[in-house]
Structures are given as structure tokens and as C-alpha cells.
């Protein structure tokens, strides 16, 4: 059971709640803040003050005053009209993550919702009632309006949710079956639920979890390649990396040495060649730079996971109500664009190592690792597939955040496109994992030719484990099946009900 406060949610706790389905509870101090904030909204309504989002229209309609008797209709109309998501559906895990993050933001007590709203969000998380939310339709400011509107519909008894077998069904049916009572949204509550960055941040945190695992996997897979090619281990000497000063680079070199400890397949400088190609020699420098990016992304995500991102915000017990722009997704948009580039580079350098494993002009292995070169093509077309994936990544890595299209009659004239950036990052991560799966298959085969009994003890264990997933290449076969098998084995969530968490465009 993890207690939410609105201030302290971490990536690790996020993972436990969203992937391991751990239950949540709410701190009493946070509930007290929610109650105080709600009293302020009720005072505004009863005193007939005019405040944006409470008794006015939205966006370009912010100057339209709403009668008190129409305030509830205003909130429901807002949710229904903004539920304009289109395209493929977000995987269930993304919906769960959005519920969690929207709840955590409301707990800070600056949004003016009733305790009933946060209690209902908690109940949806704990009873695993996850809204069906289309992927496309968000500009990333005023937050993720369309995706969050689909989420908010479920609180009112409308919209759709995922059934226990993962199929979209009418939300009201599941709420009834699980004894969950929907609510009628009161003043400001509709806006508080949809004005935020929870779609891009949910995607971003899930992307981070996958990218972090991918970065670790890329190191032992590269170590296998080192053995398959008789790579020069001197390039990982700690003195080299300490001399540059990037801690992440030093850590990669340290882990590479750890994986390769005891190997009789790697070489020393001058034994076989003086230098390796950059894709081998520069593993700590390139992979280390990706780790620098991951550290940056994690920091920004953990801030945003605990941020208040709706508008307007209520301070000083309602004495100060300010319209601002915390819903603007630029920090996460930039972080996701940065993540896209960093993960794409893991795939780029992996594909170059694949080429060195299969090209007979660059190694002393059978051409294309084939047992019968010429008659059988071996791993030739696996390299083609890797090249195709890294080329696709180069297109997806174009930053989404540099684009902006004005909306709401030019009232909202600069937007972040952060959710697009996060979706593209998810696709790049899946492509990169398949590239690394191909490198893994090729490296396993190369080590077999070189003598896997000479492999480092830690890598020998991995070699044995993965030989149960992908057998030796004794003859040509449909290698697509092998690639997918290794791809799934590398997934950090392959054993959960949310296996297909990738957010494809």
C-alpha cells in the first residue's frame, strides 16, 4: 500500500502502482488540504464572485458568465465536448497511470475539488477500473484536454472502461458491478479534472521505465558482441573515463568490465588489433550520454508527477485565485524529445555492431553467421530489419515540441505537443528494443562460433538463458519469430497483464 500526498510520488512507486497493481491510500493531511480548497470554491459560488473556470465559460468563452443554476451543466458539457480523442486506444496501463497522476495532483489542495472526487479516483485505481482513452487529440496545452476528458467521463458514469479481459465496455456497467457510485461534477471540478499534463506525464514515466531497462540491456548485449568479435577490453579501463569526468560514462565502463570479467574471448590492445571501431570502443561514451539524458528525464518527470497543472489555482483559503499556465506541457515535451534522441542512439550504435557481426569483411566469423554461406543467408536480412528500424527512428526523433498550432480562436496561441513527443518516444523505444534483440541473436551466434565455454561467467549464464528462447542457427528459418521472442523477453513488463504497454503512433 502506497500513501499519496501530492508531493512525494517517485518513479519507483509509480511503477509499483501502475505495473505491479499495488493499492494506494491518501494521507489525511492531503485530504485536509482538499477540503479547505473546496470550501474556498463554495464561498466563491455563494458570494456570486466571477472567477474563471468556476462560473465562466472556457478558453475563448472565458468572458461568458454562467448562471449559478447552470454551473453543474457547465462542468458536464465541458467534459462531453472535450472528449474528442481519436485513433488507437492507449494501453490500459496508461489509463491507470493517468488516474494516479490526476489524483496525486489534486491532493495538493490548490484545485478546489470535493473530497468525493479524489476518493472516487482512488477507488478506480484500487478496483482497477481503467478508462478507455484514444491516443490522439491532445495539443499539450491547456494540458491534455481530450485524453483527460475521456478519463473524467467515467467518473460521471459515462464513457468506456476496460473489462477484466481487456475489452472496452460501457463504464456504467463496470461501475455498477464493482459497487462504485458515479458523481455529479460541481463547480470547477470538470475543469480541474481535464486541465493538466497527465497523459504526457503518464506516458513519459512509462517510457522512462522501459528506456531505463533498455539501457541496462544494451550493455550486456554489447558485451556479448564484444566477445563475439574479440573486442579490446582496454577501452573500458577506468582511467580513460575518469579523465573525461562524466559519471554516467564511468558507470557504463564499470558495468562493461563487470560483465566481461573472466572472459577468454575478449582481447588486449595489440593482441588482435590496435583499436576497435567506434561502435565497440565508444560504448561508454555513447551509452553514457544516453544515461545522462535518462537522469535528466527522470528528474523532470518526478517533478511533474507531483505538480499542480490545472487552472485557475486557489491559494490562501480562496483569498487568492490566479489564472496561470501550469497546464503547459513544455517541460515534458522537451524531456520526451530529448529521450527520443537518446534512445534512438542506442539503436543506431547497436545496428552498427550488428553490421560488424554479420559482415565477413569486418570479422573472422562465417559470412552473415550462416552455417552454409551462399546456400543459406543466415543473419543477412536481420541486419536489414535493424537498418529499417533505426531509419524509422530518425524520422520519429524529429522534435514534436518545435511545432505549435494556435487554438481556441488564438487565445491558446502556443502549445507544447508534449503528448505527441511522448507517443513518438514510446515507438522509438519499441523499435530500439527490436534492434537490440537482433544484436542479441547475432552475438549469441557469434559467441557459439568462438566457443561459448570461453565466455565470461555472467555472460555465459545469459547465453544459456537466451538459448532457451532462441536456438542456435543451424539452418535458415523464419527469424521474425526469434526477434519477437527476444523482444518480449527484454520487456520490463512482459510478465504483467500490461504486456502491450507500447504506445504506437
TrEMBL record:
EC numbers, comma separated: 4.3.1.3
Any one of the GO BP annotations: L-histidine catabolic process to glutamate and formamide
Matching PROSITE patterns: PAL_HISTIDASE (PS00488)
Catalysed reactions, semicolon-separated: L-histidine = trans-urocanate + NH4(+)
Annotated crosslink 5-imidazolinone (Ala-Gly) location: 141-143
Keyword Lyase attached: yes
Functional pathway: Amino-acid degradation; L-histidine degradation into L-glutamate; N-formimidoyl-L-glutamate from L-histidine: step 1/3
Post-translational modification: Contains an active site 4-methylidene-imidazol-5-one (MIO), which is formed autocatalytically by cyclization and dehydration of residues Ala-Ser-Gly.
Gene3D superfamilies given in the database record: Fumarase/aspartase (Central domain), Fumarase/aspartase (N-terminal domain)
Subcellular location: Cytoplasm
Transmembrane regions listed in the UniProt entry: none
Any one GO MF annotation of this record: histidine ammonia-lyase activity
Principal subcellular localization: cytoplasm
SUPFAM superfamilies: L-aspartase-like (SSF48557)
2,3-didehydroalanine (Ser): residues carrying this PTM: 142
Keyword Lyase (UniProt): yes
Database matches in InterPro entries: Aromatic_Lyase (IPR001106), Fumarase/histidase_N (IPR024083), HutH (IPR005921), L-Aspartase-like (IPR008948), Phe/His_NH3-lyase_AS (IPR022313)
GO CC entries: cytoplasm
Keywords: Cytoplasm, Histidine metabolism, Lyase
Pfam families on file: Lyase_aromatic
Family under the similarity heading: Belongs to the PAL/histidase family.
HAMAP family associated with the record: His_ammonia_lyase
Protein name in the entry: Histidine ammonia-lyase
UniProt organism field: Lentibacillus amyloliquefaciens
Amino acid at each position: 500500500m502506497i500513501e499519496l500526498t501530492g508531493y512525494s510520488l517517485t518513479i519507483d512507486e509509480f511503477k509499483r502502482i501502475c505495473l505491479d497493481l499495488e493499492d494506494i491510500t491518501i494521507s489525511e493531511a492531503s485530504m485536509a488540504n482538499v477540503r479547505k480548497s473546496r470550501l474556498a470554491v463554495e464561498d466563491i459560488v455563494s458570494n456570486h464572485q466571477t472567477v474563471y473556470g468556476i462560473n465562466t465559460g472556457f478558453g475563448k468563452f472565458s468572458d461568458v458568465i454562467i448562471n449559478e443554476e447552470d454551473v453543474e451543466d457547465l462542468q458536464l458539457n465541458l467534459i462531453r465536448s472535450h472528449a474528442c480523442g481519436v485513433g488507437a486506444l492507449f494501453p490500459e496501463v496508461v489509463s491507470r497511470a493517468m488516474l494516479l497522476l490526476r489524483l496525486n495532483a489534486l491532493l495538493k489542495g490548490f484545485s478546489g475539488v470535493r473530497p468525493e472526487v479524489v476518493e472516487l479516483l482512488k477507488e478506480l485505481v484500487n478496483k482497477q477500473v481503467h478508462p478507455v482513452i484514444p491516443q490522439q487529440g491532445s495539443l499539450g496545452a491547456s494540458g491534455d484536454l481530450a485524453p483527460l476528458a475521456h478519463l473524467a467521463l467515467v467518473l460521471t458514469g459515462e464513457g468506456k472502461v476496460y473489462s477484466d479481459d481487456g475489452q472496452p465496455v460501457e463504464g456504467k456497467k463496470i461501475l455498477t458491478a464493482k459497487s462504485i457510485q458515479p458523481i455529479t461534477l460541481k463547480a470547477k471540478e470538470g475543469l480541474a479534472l481535464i486541465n493538466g499534463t497527465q497523459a504526457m506525464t503518464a506516458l513519459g514515466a512509462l517510457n522512462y521505465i522501459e528506456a531505463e531497462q533498455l539501457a541496462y540491456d544494451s550493455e550486456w548485449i554489447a558485451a556479448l558482441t564484444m566477445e563475439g568479435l574479440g573486442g579490446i577490453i582496454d577501452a573500458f579501463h577506468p582511467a580513460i573515463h575518469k579523465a573525461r569526468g562524466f559519471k554516467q560514462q564511468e558507470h557504463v565502463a564499470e558495468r562493461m568490465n563487470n560483465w566481461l570479467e573472466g572472459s577468454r574471448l575478449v582481447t588486449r590492445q595489440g593482441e588482435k588489433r590496435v583499436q576497435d571501431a567506434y561502435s565497440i570502443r565508444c560504448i561508454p561514451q555513447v551509452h553514457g550520454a544516453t544515461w545522462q539524458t535518462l537522469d535528466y528525464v527522470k528528474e523532470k518527470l518526478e517533478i511533474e508527477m507531483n505538480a499542480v497543472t490545472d487552472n485557475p489555482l486557489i491559494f490562501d483559503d480562496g483569498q487568492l485565485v490566479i489564472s496561470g499556465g501550469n497546464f503547459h506541457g513544455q517541460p515534458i515535451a522537451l524531456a520526451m524529445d530529448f529521450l527520443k534522441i537518446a534512445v534512438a542512439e542506442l539503436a543506431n550504435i547497436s545496428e552498427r555492431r550488428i553490421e560488424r557481426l554479420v559482415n565477413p569483411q569486418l570479422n573472422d566469423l562465417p559470412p552473415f553467421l550462416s552455417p552454409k554461406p551462399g546456400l543459406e543467408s543466415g543473419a543477412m536480412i536481420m541486419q536489414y530489419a535493424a537498418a529499417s528500424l533505426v531509419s524509422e527512428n530518425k524520422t520519429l526523433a524529429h522534435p514534436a515540441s518545435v511545432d505549435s498550432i494556435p487554438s481556441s480562436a488564438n487565445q491558446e496561441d502556443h502549445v507544447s505537443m508534449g503528448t505527441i513527443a511522448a507517443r513518438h518516444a514510446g515507438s522509438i523505444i519499441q523499435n530500439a528494443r527490436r534492434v537490440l534483440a537482433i544484436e542479441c541473436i547475432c552475438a549469441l551466434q557469434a559467441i557459439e562460433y568462438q566457443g561459448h565455454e570461453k565466455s565470461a561467467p555472467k555472460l555465459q549464464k545469459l547465453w544459456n538463458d537466451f538459448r532457451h528462447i532462441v536456438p542456435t542457427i543451424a539452418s535458415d528459418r523464419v527469424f521474425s519469430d526469434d526477434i519477437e521472442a527476444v523482444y518480449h523477453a527484454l520487456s520490463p513488463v512482459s510478465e504483467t497483464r500490461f504486456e502491450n504497454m507500447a504506445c504506437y503512433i
